[in-house]
Copper transport protein (Cicer arietinum), 143 residues
Amino acid sequence: MMHMTFYWSKKVTLLIDSWKTDSWTSYILSLLACLIVSIFYQLLENRRIRLKLFASGKQFPAEIQTPLIQRKLVGSRAKLGVKLAGAVLFGVSSAIGYFLMLSVMSFNGGVFIAIVVGLAIGYLFFRSDGEDSFVGDSSCACA
């Protein structure tokens, strides 16, 4: 039975029928997985925003370092490659965001807290350095 209100239990089904927790160990491991995926989501968003800044040709702020990306784009093939990489990052990031949203819709309180804490930790480490102000992106966790 699907819950329609928040509940607190170690028994939860996440995303697929075979991902069910019935013990504290499986529940804690599932919460840890949600936390790690949430942090990874923020890392992907950070990389996507950096790539978007790079592709737009804007100057990077002094605090944003990109040692692996060269600033010289030569020809339309390189620009197409950057656009394609940005589209792939956007697609993967969106898919992870929607999976996180669907996990929260399990209405399990622990899953909700794990995902929100993971998003906050990821934001703290990967996105709180001010680069979001340079690109007009949505702050929605699944956009």
